Amino acid sequence: MAYDEELSDRLRVELEGIMGISEKRMMGGLCFFLDGNMLAGAHRIKSEEPRFMFRVGKDNEAEALGREGAEIVELGGRRMGGLVFVAAEVCDQAALREWISLSMSFVAGLPAKELKG
């Protein structure tokens, strides 16, 4: 995942003040974690428009994919269940908060773990 500073900054602002949030370069980009579990990230490939990535969980996947600008994450030809890309152009501040809330509803229920490396 290529790093997009503008999108990462937008995520930082919305996640500021939430206990347990950390950042880590991962999948070639920057991901945000809640208590060691991946929550969201920013993605940009040279040939594509910037987009967010959210970990919504498999149970929330159908709801997430029904939202504007959302698509399933495929990396290296492999479908990543429970993860969605969201086009940055359709993700204003209110939508970003809703996506973070959906991701938090899944990730907050996972057991905490320590980030390595």
TrEMBL record:
Pfam family, one: TfoX_N
Occurrences of domain TfoX N-terminal (ranges): 15-106
Stored Gene3D superfamilies: YgaC/TfoX-N like chaperone (3.30.1460.30)
SUPFAM superfamilies: YgaC/TfoX-N like
Top-rank taxon: Bacteria
Protein name in the entry: TfoX N-terminal domain-containing protein
